[in-house]
Amino acid sequence: MASSVIISFAFLACTLFLMTGTSSAQLTPNFYSKSCPKVFDAVSSVVRAAVAKEKRMGASLLRLHFHDCFVNGCDGGFNVIDDVKKKVEGVCPGVVSCADILAISALESVLALGGPKWTVKLGRRDSKSASLSAANSGVIPPPTSTLSNLINRFQAVGLSAKDMVALSGSHTIGQARCTTFRARIYNDTNIDAKFAKLRQSSCPSPTGSGDNNLAPLDVKTPNYFDNDYYQNLISQKGLLRSDQQLHNGGSTDSLVEQYSRNPKSFFQDFVAAMVKMGDIRPLTGSNGEIRKNCRVAN
Ligand code: HEM
Ligand SMILES: *[C@@H]1O[C@H](CO)[C@@H](O)[C@H](O)[C@H]1NC(C)=O
Asked: Given its phi and psi angles, is residue 210 left (phi above 0), alpha (psi -120 to 50 degrees) or beta?
């Protein structure tokens, strides 16, 4: 009985697989080599110009790709990339998904700020439902996360602790709002005292004023993609509680120390982890859609 259920289930699964054989596919770097060979140039020109004008744009775009991938699989649910989309539509209308535009924008952002290059895999499709609301639904780890929370959240989407530590190196660029690090700079003990004071000066307590005041995630060079993030952690200058968790007497200390000494090994692992993150259950084939406007489903 049980085995016949299993067999008919397997049969059904195979039939479905054959029927939908074209709708599920793997991402590949060459996905647009015929349909939109200029996609990299188009994205690059807009992203480079935007980052040259406003460095933080690079950080925002990188973070968008992370959230996009984590929340719904990389399905292009979020935006800010209207200009990039417009440019891409200009060279090959209706062909390139917003999720792929985000993936390429993340690469171009990192490159524009001095970081490493990787081979972006493409062929994602966009979801037919807005995924933005899910951004706060508990998939993205909060900045108060403990090390085991962080490891578990990443594991839930198929990323290892090593991937998590390497990807967190993204906090070598960009800014965070006072509300995300206030508790840390006033109450934590695993923080450099001078650093805490410095951050308190523009992030008042108690809650209420200055919630949106910004501070750089990397105290040294927030506009350069380098390995300073890990050096900060070793001197207890991680801005977020979740940052400092990576070097707080736990299982990831040694990896943080390795990345702090060896930028090459950080870049190598970061690149591998970005490709892995970009592969989180994407919509492919005939699933989903190519959005006309990255902000909303068609
Ligand atoms: C490990 C778990 C992570 C936590 C808890 C976390 C948390 C945060 C928080 C709280 C902020 C500030 C947001 C705000 O003030 O509104 C932030 C910013 C940022 N995060 Fe993460 N993050 C994590 C992982 C990642 C990953 C994997 C990436 C990219 C691959 C990333 C890229 C960024 C970037 C670039 C910024 C700066 C954005 C900007 O300046 O606009 N983060 N993160
Ligand atoms: C610091 O901890 C105390 C005691 O738990 C709490 O009442 C206070 O709100 C915390 N301060 C911040 C800024 O989080």
From this structure: left
